[in-house]
Design brief:
With 470 residues, the protein is α/β, with parallel strands linked by helices. Helix content is 35%, strand content 12%. It has helices at residues 2-7, 15-36, 41-46, 61-83, 89-113, 136-144, 154-160, 191-197, 210-218, 243-246, 266-270, 308-312, 331-337, 354-360, 396-409, 428-437; strands spanning 163-164, 178-179, 321-325, 342-346, 364-366, 381-387, 410-424, 441-449, 457-465.
Length: 470
């Protein structure tokens, strides 16, 4: 059936749908433009919202209501598109475009969301824009309704309802008579986006929207609900290359679905020409599988790295399984695999096909957001490695939760390998204090200046041993 859809001559988009789309799109955009034009455009874009100065812009509720309205209209439109029986390619492309607009609208809504909350209740700061509002009451109800019905999609209602076992009333191996599928409480904040995610035709091909799913996860709606649709596959996927070769072999372009990435082929991920336009920023050369990282010739006096052998020699034969929590394409896991150590590589697809590349190398991609507890049991892993991840951006409180979760999954005497953590010189002590607080023994420890333009940062690399605790 799926093959057919490629061969069939494309049908036109049904007239009714087109009319609805045009109406929704143009009326909504018109409304948005008209009403935001009451606000000076330069303020709208450039004012620093963080400050409490007098020229701080406060958006009237009305804008928010309009955007919510557009979001729900797009939701309805997408629902109609996805339940359309036609298999035409044009329709699929069309749906994807509508989805993209909907996603940008969500982004807009999200980036504006901070600036509604401080509207004074007495309405002093509300501009005349609000006079046009006739839906304010309605939407306020929706805002307050977190205690009542939050989500609208029927499929989500179905998903979260208890699922009784087949012989009703009998307990399953979990000791439960019903399974209770859950979604994170953060999903309630993202109700319209999640409703959109759950709008699809059951047992049909899913919308091409993994980026929407990832956005939900990163924004705190995690775990996501399961869906009853088929994920698209790369059309010309053949078979993986054998393990002894795959570790250092670049995947074929046809094995990856590029539709949601800025880069449309592998060359773009590694070439210098595209470096500012690839859609990802961390680990600029990590898709270059000819670079073995950790393994290159290093000047011991200036390098902040430890070699794989240095690490493994700390506990010969004892390091067997572990986790790499780094936004990279799996090179640490590949080097460890060559030493017969099994490493899961935790990363999301932040603008590039990280998970696909890790998998194509024959390594295990663990797709998990930073907001989540690790899916490992207590005291089980021999090593946790992290690079390019914590760095100087992380706040102390988040760092504490992350570190203590790593601590939880590490086995007694397991290794925490903090690889080239960097931050501003003046912040290093603060971070080091946090690393010290978990009471690990320092097996390897190195603080080095970070040699780049600014020269005001330091690297910390450390291998720390988890204590046995009473
Ligand atoms: C939701 O579940 C009900 C009852 O199980 C079922 O009748 C209905 O068809 C389901 N709806 C969808 C959209 O699958
Ligand atoms: C991989 O393994 C196969 C069979 O085990 C062998 O024929 C081949 O030479 C190996 N390739 C490499 C690059 O080691
Ligand atoms: C890319 O740039 C780096 C340094 O900027 C250089 O070392 C490297 O050779 C360049 N690679 C290519 C393929 O041009
Ligand atoms: C990994 O395991 C294989 C098979 O047991 C063995 O031949 C090889 O020497 C091991 N490599 C290392 C680095 O221990």
């Amino acid at each position: 059936m799926r093959k057919q859809s490629i061969l069939r001559p494309p049908k036109c988009i049904p007239g009714g749908l087109r009319t609805i789309l045009c109406f929704v799109l143009f009326s909504s955009l018109f409304v948005l433009i008209v009403y935001t034009s009451h606000i000076s455009y330069s303020d709208f874009v450039f004012t620093s919202f963080g400050t409490e100065s007098n020229d701080r812009i406060v958006f009237p509720r009305y804008i928010k209501n309009q955007i919510s309205y557009m979001q729900s209209q797009f939701g309805i439109l997408l629902e109609q598109l996805h339940t359309e029986r036609s298999e035409s390619k044009i329709l699929v492309k069309f749906s994807d475009q509508v989805l993209q607009i909907a996603v940008s609208l969500d982004r807009l809504a999200e980036s504006l969301s901070r600036h509604y909350s401080n509207v004074p209740a007495d309405g002093k700061d509300i501009t005349k824009v609000d006079e046009y509002s006739s839906t304010t009451e309605e939407d306020e109800v929706e805002e307050e309704s977190l205690h009542g019905k939050v989500f609208n999609s029927a499929e989500l209602q179905n998903y979260t309802s208890p699922k009784p076992n087949k012989p009703r009333g009998k307990k399953n191996f979990l000791g439960l008579e019903s399974v209770y599928p859950s979604i994170g409480q953060g999903c309630a904040r993202l109700a319209s986006t999640l409703d959109r995610f759950m709008t699809y035709k059951a047992y049909d091909i899913c919308p091409d929207d993994w980026d929407l799913a990832q956005k939900l996860m990163i924004s705190g709606c995690d775990p996501l609900p399961r869906r009853r649709c088929f994920t698209r596959t790369p059309l010309r996927y053949d078979k993986p290359c054998p393990l002894n070769a795959s570790l250092w072999t670049q995947p074929r372009d046809v094995d990856i679905s590029w539709s949601r990435y800025k880069c449309k082929n592998y060359r773009c991920l590694v070439s210098n020409g595209t470096i500012n336009n690839r859609g990802f920023y961390k680990c600029s050369d990590c898709f270059d599988l000819t670079k073995r990282g950790w393994d290159g010739q290093r000047d011991k006096d200036i390098s902040a790295e430890f070699s794989i052998d240095e690490i493994l020699m700390l506990k010969p034969g004892e390091i067997r399984i572990g986790l790499d929590f780094s936004p990279t394409a799996g090179t640490f896991a590949a080097l460890m695999k060559e030493k017969n150590v099994t490493i899961a590589s935790a990363t999301m697809n932040l603008g590039a096909p990280f998970s696909e590349v890790i998998a194509s190398r024959g390594l295990l991609p663990l797709y998990i957001s930073i907001g989540s507890r690790l899916p490992f049991f207590d005291n089980t892993l021999d090593i946790v490695h992290s690079t390019l991840f914590l760095d100087g951006w992380i706040g102390i409180e988040l760092l504490q939760f992350v570190l203590l979760d790593w601590d939880r999954v590490l086995r007694p005497k397991g290794l925490l390998y903090v690889d080239r953590f960097f931050c501003k010189k003046e912040n290093m002590k603060m971070y080091v204090d946090e690393f010290d607080r978990i009471g690990y023994k320092r097996l390897l420890w190195k603080v080095m200046p970070k040699m780049d333009k600014l020269d005001d940062e330091l690297f910390l690399s450390a291998v720390l041993e988890k204590p046995v605790r009473g």
